[in-house]
Design brief:
Blueprint (H helix, E strand, L loop, with lengths): L1 H51 L6 E2 L5 E2 L1 H6 L29 E4 L5 E5 L8 E3 L39 E5 L38 E3 L4 E2 L3 H4 L5 H6 L17 H4 L5
Antiparallel strand pairs: 1-2, 3-4, 5-6, 6-7, 7-8
């Protein structure tokens, strides 16, 4: 009996030692899948750009907010909706009407009902860099925000991005369980001041975020570097002119939010 207890104790110790390694491997696997998703979206983005000469822009405002970057890229994705969500994010953030109850039915760009419509209150795990560092800046700094309404400045042409290798296109954003905290969750904005900060880049990959750039490559920097207003390199990478725009006031980064691991 004593020998059996010793064996059981040894097994328990070995399992305890192995568990962190297994967890780390699982998390790494999910991040790898996330990177692959973003690369696929990057290919779709490049194909859309070549076909139209412009970036997808972000959202339609007429008749209620309706995100257009997903359906525009979806045309090049071979019916693959799974690539539009991070495997490490909350499952309920998937672009799947059977899982994500925050998806809506809205009239799409083709005039037909879109049962998978992403709106301003939809939980999502990837966001588009629509406005860069400021939605009020003229000319616009991101990849195109609203396609209509008072804030619209028209599309961003291919020539409108000075350095594609430096320009952030898409990336991880937090996917919160509480729908009351969701606010334009399919945008990505380092200055987001809302309570749920659902437009911030997410740090779900061990405090790192996965980001797709306009040339199609993906990087995995520390999220807190990406949102740091004092980091001029990252400030530049949010803007289509590759300028840090220090004329735009620094935003506040709440340490409680910044140092908390999200999903």
């Amino acid at each position: 009996m004593i020998e059996l207890l010793v064996v059981i104790a040894i097994i328990a110790i070995l399992a305890a030692m192995l568990l962190p390694a297994l967890t780390k491997a699982k998390n790494k696997s999910k991040q790898t899948s996330c990177i692959n998703n973003l690369r696929q979206l990057g290919i779709a983005n490049t194909m859309y750009l070549h076909d139209t000469g412009q970036y997808t822009a972000c959202i339609r405002t007429a008749g209620g907010f309706y995100y257009i970057w997903q359906p525009r890229l979806y045309l090049y994705m071979g019916s693959n909706r799974k690539a539009f969500s991070c495997p490490a994010a909350l499952p309920e953030a998937a672009w799947d009407i059977n899982i994500n109850t925050t998806l809506r039915t809205v009239t799409g760009l083709d005039g037909k009902p879109d049962n998978y419509a992403v709106t301003d209150t939809t939980r999502f795990s990837y966001g588009l860099n629509d406005w860069g560092l400021s939605l009020n800046y003229r000319p616009q700094l991101g990849l195109g925000g609203d396609i209509d309404g008072g804030l619209s400045q028209g599309p961003i042409r291919e020539s409108g991005v000075r350095s594609p290798v430096q320009m952030i296109v898409l990336g991880d954003v937090p996917a919160l369980k509480n729908p009351a905290l969701i606010s334009f969750n399919a945008n990505m904005d380092p200055t987001d001041p809302t309570q749920g900060h659902t437009q911030w880049p997410s740090n779900r990959h061990t405090y790192r975020t996965d980001l797709l750039f306009a040339d199609g490559h993906v990087e995995t920097p520390r999220r807190n570097d990406v949102i740091d207003p004092k980091n001029l390199i990252w400030r530049s990478r949010w803007n289509n002119d590759n300028n840090p725009h220090t004329d735009i006031p620094d935003w506040t980064v709440n340490p409680t939010w910044a140092n908390q691991l999200d999903f």
